[in-house]
TrEMBL record, chains A, B:
SUPFAM superfamilies: PCD-like
Xref: InterPro entries: PCD_sf, Pterin_deHydtase
Family: Belongs to the pterin-4-alpha-carbinolamine dehydratase family.
The protein's name: Putative pterin-4-alpha-carbinolamine dehydratase
Superkingdom of this protein's organism: Bacteria
HAMAP family: Pterin_4_alpha
Gene3D superfamilies linked to this entry: Transcriptional coactivator/pterin dehydratase
Biological process, per Gene Ontology: tetrahydrobiopterin biosynthetic process
Lineage: Bacteria, Pseudomonadati, Pseudomonadota, Alphaproteobacteria, Rhodobacterales
Amino acid sequence: MTERLSDETRGPLLDPLFKCGWQMIEGRDAITKTFVFENFVDAFGWMTRVAIWAEKWNHHPEWSNVYKTVTVVLTTHEVDGLSALDAKLARKMEAMV
Amino acid sequence: MTERLSDETRGPLLDPLFKCGWQMIEGRDAITKTFVFENFVDAFGWMTRVAIWAEKWNHHPEWSNVYKTVTVVLTTHEVDGLSALDAKLARKMEAMV
């Protein structure tokens, strides 16, 4: 079962992400990062690879794309906040850049 | 050369789009529509097909996706407003739904 991150799990899971550019969103228990690629093909190609993992894990980002820029927001609606799935998907996103 | 839509070309190109749910954005010479699909695979699959045409025509949307919903904004930065390319890409989007 998916659970909201506890005080104990939050640091170990989120700190490594904060170190590579992820941030908390003001007023929401959610993390965000803007990725900038070389061009649209690289940006959308990355989104496509992420999309396949998102569907496989049944955990989908909120994201927007303008040409070579992709802004991602991750949170878990089911628990109304961050879960381990968000950290997992964020790590996958980083691995695929 | 890409040109901003004139008063004469605006109606014929945009009216058919307004009839199928496109709207002007307040304060911008841009059009927007929110597409709702059955699920994420349908939403992202549609985005992928649109992306290939966008790249082929070198005219890219601003768009955001949350699970089965895709919100699109079209405008032409080069002319600081709507051009025939926006109408063309919007028509292609409609054809691929």
